[in-house]
């Protein structure tokens, strides 16, 4: 039951994009095309899980015992940057079409606040997550579920943007970024309903 609760909390209630407003840059920038949006969502999810896999033990077993826990953000950013660089090279070599479609947004995963947010959240106060105590297994599950929430949000956004572009005659003043913000606002209200349950 704790895993199901963790899933609902990560994907819907505490969605990093539309509830906590972290990771907005790729959410708005890559959501013009569904396939690119899905690729970005998978890339962010992979980085979230790998970052948690590295940062949770690093913090718990190295930084806290040595008294360096106050430098967690700096260490975590270095870890995330290294992971994104590795992911970028893998995509460039094995999936060049996805690498080209993500463009500048792929390196921006390094500064994606959602990735850092997951790494920080799993080492902090986890009482709001509905689990008794955090361990590496729960931390990885939360990172995975948060990534799934990111995928859900960005794919929904891209699908809505594609439908609006295809089937509506949008006034020039609303095309592009303005209508994206309107869609994101409605999505945020829809996801907010899960916090009331």
Task: Kindly state the percentage of residues in helix.
Answer: over 70%
Query: What is the chain-wise order of helices and strands?
Result: HHHHHHHH
The low-confidence parts are: none
What is the distance, rounded to the nearest whole angstrom, between the alpha carbons of the first and last residues? Answer: 16 Å
Strand content: under 5%
> How many distinct helices?
8
| Backbone structural class | mainly alpha
Q: Categorize the overall geometry.
A: globular
| Biggest β-sheet description | none
Tell me the domain tally. 1
Write the layout of secondary structure elements.
Layout: H1 2-13, H2 24-29, H3 34-66, H4 72-94, H5 96-102, H6 113-121, H7 136-167, H8 177-192
Helix pairs in contact: 1-7, 3-4, 3-6, 3-7, 4-5, 4-6, 7-8
In short:
This protein is mostly helical and 197 residues long.
How would you describe this structure to a colleague?
By secondary structure, the protein is mostly helical. It has one domain. The protein has eight helices and no strands. Helix 1 packs parallel to helix 7 and helix 3 runs antiparallel to helix 4 (72-94). The two termini are 16 Å apart. The relative contact order is 0.21. The model has no long low-confidence stretch (mean pLDDT 88).
Task: Jot down its keywords.
single chain, 197 residues, mainly alpha, 8 helices, 70% helix, globular
């Amino acid at each position: 039951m704790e895993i199901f609760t963790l899933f609902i909390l990560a994907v819907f209630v505490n969605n990093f994009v539309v509830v906590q407003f972290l990771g907005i840059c790729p959410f708005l920038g890559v959501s013009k095309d569904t396939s690119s949006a899905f690729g970005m969502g998978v890339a962010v999810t992979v980085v979230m899980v790998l970052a948690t896999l590295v940062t949770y033990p690093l913090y718990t077993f190295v930084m806290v015992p040595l008294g360096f826990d106050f430098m967690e953000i700096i260490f975590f950013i270095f870890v995330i940057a290294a992971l994104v660089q590795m992911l970028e090279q893998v995509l460039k070599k094995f999936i060049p079409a996805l690498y080209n479609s993500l463009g500048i947004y792929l390196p921006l995963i390094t500064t994606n606040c959602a990735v850092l947010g997951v790494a920080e959240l799993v080492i902090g106060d986890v009482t709001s997550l509905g689990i008794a105590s955090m361990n590496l297994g729960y931390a990885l599950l939360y990172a995975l579920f948060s990534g799934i929430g990111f995928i859900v949000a960005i794919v929904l956004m891209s699908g809505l943007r594609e439908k609006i572009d295809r089937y509506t005659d949008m006034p020039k003043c609303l095309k592009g970024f303005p209508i994206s913000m309107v869609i994101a606002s409605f999505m945020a209200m829809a996801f907010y309903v899960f916090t009331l349950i």
